[in-house]
Design brief:
CATH architecture of the largest domain: 3-Layer(aba) Sandwich
Number of helices: 12
Shape: globular
Radius of gyration: 22 Å
Oligomer: single chain
Order of helices and strands: HEHEHEHEHEHEEEEHHHHHH
Length: about 325
């Protein structure tokens, strides 16, 4: 426990605050429901850095494997949804190798060329499953997601799989995801899109994940643009309470004219806080990601900040390798 507290782990800011984080996610729904349209919407908003509904988005490159489409259909769909306002960092492919038979190498090659990629959408999971073998055992389903989770974690990205639901109902709606529970068990989270009426435009989007609060969103599909629009959210997202210490640090070091260098003991005195130096260091270690966000909001210059925490060895090392500040 002490070693955990004395270590700074790189933060993993969400791609879409409250909705989508790094790791592996399943996006499930019945066929012909509009899943691919919502995938295009998510991909476009992230590639442009435009908020999705009421949720802030971090801009990044996106790879969308639209394996059940062709380029003509993609062109028509995107034009109807977004007009002529394109995105230079949104990439498409309508073909890919299978997992274990070339897909891994294709994704690695893409990541080498496009290092700012944060999201890969695979539409659909079935299109990249390994051919042959016991494809629908728990162990095989778990292994498929685990392999791609390892890839996602190694690059600090999100891989979002489009998948289908089964026809049978269930008390737990996420049990309706086609295949065994191994898929959901290995994934970091899941989205479940369901229409309220088969012939209607209204739908619910339920979200569950390791790094986020469970949610239920009520959506309606615009019949002209085919974009999914948010009507309401059933649950208000929990927000972290204010942390005065982090806010004070961000405020103090937000000016280019200010710099500080010293030990954790001297830092306590400089900040005017009544706490043990090792407690301050551990608090900064644990909250490094949140402090990062506070400093980014203050437009803090990274080179100046790096000197400020030279007395906190682990935190200093973290800042030294954190190019996002």
């Amino acid at each position: 426990m002490a070693e955990l507290y004395d270590t700074v782990y790189p933060s993993k800011p969400p791609l879409i605050d409250g909705l989508l984080y790094t790791g592996t996610y399943l996006f499930a729904g019945a066929p012909k429901l509009g899943k691919s349209f919502l995938m295009a919407q998510i991909a476009y908003h992230i590639s442009k850095g435009i908020p999705l509904w009421d949720y802030p988005v971090r801009k990044a490159a996106v790879l969308y494997l639209a394996l059940e489409d062709d380029y003509r259909r993609l062109q028509e769909r995107l034009y109807r949804m977004f007009g002529t306002d394109g995105a230079d960092n949104l990439f498409f492919s309508v073909s890919a190798c299978n997992l274990g038979n070339g897909l891994d190498e294709q994704l690695q090659e893409f990541m080498k060329k496009h290092t700012d990629t944060r999201l890969i959408i695979i539409d659909t999971l079935q299109k990249v499953r390994e051919v042959g073998g016991d494809n629908y055992s728990y162990a095989n389903d778990y292994e498929i997601i685990t392999k791609l989770k390892q890839f996602a974690d190694s690059y600090g990205i999100c891989i979002l799989f489009v998948h289908h639901t089964r026809k049978q109902g269930s008390d737990d709606k996420f049990d309706m995801i086609s295949g065994t529970t191994g898929l959901l068990g290995a994934a970091d989270g899941a989205f479940l899109l369901q229409k309220e009426k088969q012939t209607g435009n209204a739908a619910t989007l339920e979200i569950s994940g390791r790094d986020q609060q469970d949610q239920k969103l009520y959506l309606v599909r615009n019949t002209e643009t085919l974009l999914w629009e948010l009507q309401k959210a059933e649950t208000e997202l929990w927000k972290e309470p204010p942390e005065p210490l982090l806010e004070r640090i961000a405020e103090i070091f937000s000016s280019d004219s200010k710099a500080w260098e010293g030990t954790p003991t001297e830092l306590c005195g400089y900040l005017g806080v009544d706490m043990q130096p090792n407690a301050l260091t551990r608090k900064l270690n644990v909250n490094a990601g949140r402090l990062n966000e506070n400093l980014r909001a203050e437009n803090k210059d990274y080179k100046l900040l790096k000197k400020a925490f030279v007395g906190s060895v682990s935190f200093y090392k973290f800042l030294r390798r954190a190019p996002t500040i």
